[in-house]
Design a protein that fits this description.
Bound molecules: iron/sulfur cluster
Number of domains: 3
Structural class: alpha/beta
Helix content: 25-40%
CATH architecture of the largest domain: 3-Layer(aba) Sandwich
Strand content: 15-25%
CATH class of the largest domain: Alpha Beta
Distance between the termini: 42 Å
Shape: globular
Largest sheet: 5 strands, parallel
Order of helices and strands: EHEHEEHEHEHEHEHHEHEEHE
Radius of gyration: 21 Å
CATH superfamily of the largest domain: 4-hydroxy-3-methylbut-2-enyl diphosphate reductase, catalytic domain
Number of helices: 10
Amino acid sequence: MDEPKEVLLAEPRGFCAGVDRAIEIVERALAKFGRPIYVRHEIVHNTYVVNDLKAKGAIFIEELSDVPPGATLVFSAHGVSKAVQQEAQARGFNIFDATCPLVTKVHVEVAKLHKEGFEFIMIGHKGHPEVEGTMGQLDSGIHLVEDAADVARVSPAQTQKLAVVTQTTLSVDDAAGILAAVKARFPSVREPKQQDICYATQNRQDAVKLLSPQVDVVIVVGSPTSSNSNRLREVALKLGTPAHMVDSADELQAEWFEGRSRVGLTAGASAPEILVRQVIDRIKALGAISVRTMEGLTETVKFPLPKGLRIDGDSPSLIEHLH
Ligand code: SF4
């Protein structure tokens, strides 16, 4: 039986700027205000990160009624609806918003075009908190489509002023196909100036496209709830490479590597590097003798922290570089 001999690491992989910032917000809030800090929804979709913050004093809740008066509350990186924002304010919490600035950018665009009379088609996954947050920027006039069949069914009240927005963590290729269906049905639809799928999603999918043909199996480190991690696995599968997603090294199964000497490894935008290292150790224990990082983009994007959590020396710049 062949054993895995080489691990090839995708570059870039793992944490993006929005995830870095969201975790930092909870950690700084804990340092400044003490435990507990309440967080609405998982701060980012990763089991290890959530458990680590729980151990440090964060309490994760879904309903604002579970937060005591006067508590400090953090909104997750996925963003929240206007209704949640207003309710949190009305309840008088000390609020810090960890919504990724690239999600906020979509919210701002929706609000601006809504004022100009636009209705929206949103390409995204039903039930994902980012989709709920973005759709919840308006009371009505935003229609969700998950695939081309939905596009055929959608019925906006008017079609002269129609704009399209997307979830930030979609498959770039699937979204392009759905967008083409939207444009075929509504030729005058307005597209975002800059695509809504974020740089981190794009770069990690591009890296998997380079990685997949060079390996016999792809392992994606990510939690089942993580949209962008699931998409990475799909990208590899679509290229014909067997691919598995694991939340931790314990989930690796020896039979995945039987007869496969080159293993590709990547991680979703919410998966910490420590998990990647643990997966590498496990694959080494199964026989791999070399680990090589592919050439790839170096990301330098950084987002500023909310004012109340900045300390001297923090960069005030909004987005240093997008690619
Ligand atoms: S995946 Fe993209 S949108 Fe989501 S937190 Fe990271 S940078 Fe922001």
